[in-house]
Amino acid sequence: METPLAMLPQGSSVKVVRIVGGKGITRRLVEMGFIPGEKVKILHSDFSGPILVSVKDSKVALGRGIAMKIVVDGLSE
Amino acid sequence: MITVALIGNPNVGKTALFNRLTGSRQHVANWPGVTVMKKTGRCKHKGEEMEVVDLPGVYSLTAASVDQLIARNFIVEEKPDVVVHIVDSTNLERNLYLTLLLLELEANVVLALNMWDLVKARGDQIDVDKLSKLLGIPVVPTVATTGEGVEKLKDEILRVSKEKPKRRLVVGYGEEFEKLIRKLEDVLRKDEKLAGRYPLRWLAIRILERDEDVLKRVGESPIKDEVSKVVKVFG
Amino acid sequence: MGEELLEDLDVVFAEKRYEVIKSILSQVWRKREVKWTFTDLLDHAFLHRGLGIPIFLSLLWAVFLFTFNFSEPFMVMIEMFFSWVGGFASGLENEVFASFIADGVCGGLGSVFVFVPPIFFLFLALAFLEDSGYLARAAFVMDRVMYRLGLHGRSFVPMIMGFGCNIPGIMAARTIENENDRLITILVNPLMSCSARLPVYVLISSVIFGAGYLAAASIYVMYILGIALAITMALTFRKTIFKGKPSPFILEFPAYKLPITRNVLTLTWERAKWFLIRAGTIIFSVMIIVWFLSSFPWEATGGGANIEASYIATFGHLIEPIVKPFGWNWMAAVALFFGFLAKEIVVGTFGALLGSGEEVELVRDSLVEAGIFTPLTGFAFMVFTLIYVPCVATIGIIARETNSAKWTIFSIVYLVALAFIVAGITIGIGRLLGIP
């Protein structure tokens, strides 16, 4: 099921489907490693405020707004 | 004198390496026209003087941010003899992205696998020779904070500055896109100014990516309309 | 070639590059899976929903404690040194020269050098936190709060540094990519009470409240007021001039590491250097000018003893009408005027005008004697000092960092206006409540 990254709870392991945003945001996210098919794990999220995820072996903090633009597919681990 | 540019993601230890190389022979100024700090320094190794330029920490080389444009323009326009790409070896997957972009820019890259001590501590294994072969560039493990590997790095810098680069890795984008790239290259070749300044393949790929800076320069070129016939990127 | 296909080519190409990287790494890299790393453990604590902010506030408190405690002995040594030199100089033959050395040079240099220890230690502590990787976590924890305030998570570090000195604080705003966010952070930074204003607070509060908890409380109020104003102005700017939401917050967390002495020291030096060079030359030159204007005409003032006969008094009386409504006299006006050049000079100027040298205790006694401030007018004076115009060195940095005359002038104008308004409101409320 496709959902924005921002709406998933801490501990979720997901896969990036696509990014819905302008060129600027898309580029920045892609540079950071958020490409379709990439596995992402939500390390810290409490439903208000920024989210910490693990992507491509590094930890990246995302503002809520940006996290809403990353559409992911929930996996179960 | 050889010019050496240092480039890498933020937080990879680039500053530490810069300090290792240049010691106290540093000079801080601003990149012209912007408020981004430019650090340059000198380094002497085996009788050769090197001027080391610290480029801003960047994740990529698109026209999206001032830092990236500065780094990119420096490499393209100043054409440093060597570009040392410093990576966080515990995080190769994302760090190598920039390496591929540098190779596309046809820079003479030497890869410094920094934070090598952390790799060992974690128990990870990296086949340095194989990596070097696959990328087509010298690869040197370093620990900038202790200085480990820095002498060897300096050796490789000198070596690369003299020898012609061998086979660099080239990323292929699939048959359809490669056809487009070749078509664009043929058109771009006709503008001597552009062709003399930038690698054609790099230009073609940037046009397809709709890079703002490249589109601006091509837009000012006489071959602009021909480019439009191949891909509609203007207007 | 279809238009739609062209739209996403940078993503398509990026994917291809990562494919190549994956294939390379599969041949070259073997990773050992680790469940929990030290970094994860620390993050669990630092980013904890309930504990995150308290931990951050405690660390911040620790930073201030460290700064003030470690720098105090050095500050005392420096003061003693300049007192000694000043005392030695007053015994010199030529009266004018003696005064120049004792009051002008020692007073001037003294008031600059005495601030080097706290500035140095503050920057040292902050550089340590930054290099260790903690500050990224702090920005994360604070971002939730800052987002609602119309600020960017990355505005956080510049604001904190502003408590030490607005100059590196404003320079630190470079890490903010979005122009609007950056501008707001820069414009609002001077409201973070920099360490140069502290001497003014200490002086005035001890004059009007004596030594005691009321004085300390009033200083604390200044800092809080500064933060409150910074937040208010940020929100205001966000709603009016810089419409729109703060730009996206993406921040990579570096792994924690024990900071390397060398890097930390280099970072500290780069920032402290600005203060020393800019502030140093300016403060010193201005103190010489103040000394000159308050000591001359030499005969009339009796070597600086009779201040009312000096050039500076003439000037002061000229500008006095501006501050009369606040209940301040011409000396306060002059002190504020020179304070524009560097906040520490406010104390020094009072010292020069009252003929009591640089020592805060002595100036305080003279001020009390001269009866220039009442509790209300003194408090309003502190408020005014908090807000009005940052020192000229900071303005120089604002000009450099914004690259725009328009925004530099705007920052000066809005801060002066805000200072008059808020100080005016303070006096107004105070009078209504019947406070003396």
Topology of this structure?
The complex is a heterotrimer of chains A (77), B (235) and C (436).
Chain A lengths: L1 E3 L8 E7 L3 H10 L6 E6 L6 E5 L2 E5 L1 H5 L1 E6 L2
Chain B lengths: L1 E7 L5 H9 L3 E5 L6 E9 L2 E7 L11 H13 L3 E7 L3 H13 L4 E6 L1 H7 L2 E2 L1 H8 L3 E3 L8 H13 L12 H14 L3 H6 L2 H9 L3 H8 L4 H7 L5
Helix pairs in contact in B: 7-9
Chain C lengths: L2 H5 L1 H20 E2 L7 H9 L5 H39 L4 H19 L2 H17 L1 H15 L7 H7 L3 H6 L7 H10 L9 H12 L3 H27 L10 E4 L7 H35 L2 H4 L9 H13 L6 H10 L4 H10 L6 H11 L4 H13 L4 H11 L2 H28 L4
Figure out the total of helices of chain A. 2
**How would the global form of chain B be characterised?**
globular
The CATH superfamily of the largest domain in chain B appears as P-loop containing nucleotide triphosphate hydrolases
End-to-end C-alpha gap of chain A: 15 Å
Low-confidence stretches of chain B: none
Strands of the widest sheet of chain A, in order across it, are: 1-6-2-3-4-5
Please estimate the helix content of chain B. 40-55%
Overall morphology of chain A = globular
Helix percentage range of chain A: 10-25%
Number of domains of chain B: 2
What's the rounded overall pLDDT mean of chain A? 86
What does this molecule look like?
The complex is a heterotrimer of chains A (77), B (235) and C (436). Chain A is α+β, with helices and mostly antiparallel strands. Chain A has a domain of 49 residues. Chain A has a 6-stranded antiparallel β-sheet with strand order 1-6-2-3-4-5. In chain A, a hairpin with a 6-residue loop joins β3 and β4. Chain A is globular and about 30 Å long. The model of chain A has no long low-confidence stretch (mean pLDDT 86). Chain B starts with a strand and ends in a 5-residue tail after the last helix. Chain B has 2 domains: 161 residues, Rossmann fold; 56 residues, Orthogonal Bundle (Helix Hairpins). A 7-stranded mixed β-sheet of chain B has the order 2-3-4-1-5-6-8, sandwiched between helices. Chain B is globular, with a radius of gyration of 19 Å. Chain B is α/β, with parallel strands linked by helices and 235 residues long. Chain C is elongated. The longest helix of chain C is centred in the first third of the chain and has 39 residues. Chain C has 21 helices and 2 strands. With 436 residues, chain C is mainly α. Chain C is 74% helix and 1% strand. Chain C has a domain of 168 residues. In chain C, α13 packs parallel to α17. Chain C starts with a helix and ends with a helix. Chains in contact: A-B, A-C, B-C. Chains B and C meet through α1, α3, β7 and α5 of B and α2, β1 and α13 of C.
